[in-house]
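Worked Example 4.2. Read the sequence first, then its structure tokens.
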Amino acid sequence: PTDCQTHSYFKERVFTKSELDTINGIGNVKKQALLKKFGSVEKIKKANEQEIMEVDGINERLAKKILENL
């Protein structure tokens, strides 16, 4: 990757990490599972509750909390 692509990748990762870290009930395992399924916080924001609940360990209450906090 070019320097610009590398910088964008790391910038997005830092931003993504901090946004998900603000949600109570989301630890490293769930955070990684969400990012693996959706690819970015922006895509998680666009997902519906049912799609988020497809991630292991995410129940309806937590899915609602994620959508409310992002």
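Now turn to a second chain, presented in exactly the same format:
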Amino acid sequence: LSAPMPNLRSLEFDYNAMGDTGAAALAASAKRLPKLEELDLSYNQITSAGMKKLAASKVFANLTRLRIAN
């Protein structure tokens, strides 16, 4: 995500096979998603390494709903 999305509240990234590389990219863009409340990362082959990068970022700061399924 290169452009700021200040009003984006929901993101559905399920079934995209983003893996840890995509998770790291999402983590790096967390500051561009200040109002994100809902995030679906189901079925993306994200391992614990990718989840750690996301958890260390601010992408989860305002979430009220997070969906992760394998």
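Notes for the reader: The first strand starts at residue 10 and ends at 12. The radius of gyration is 11 Å.
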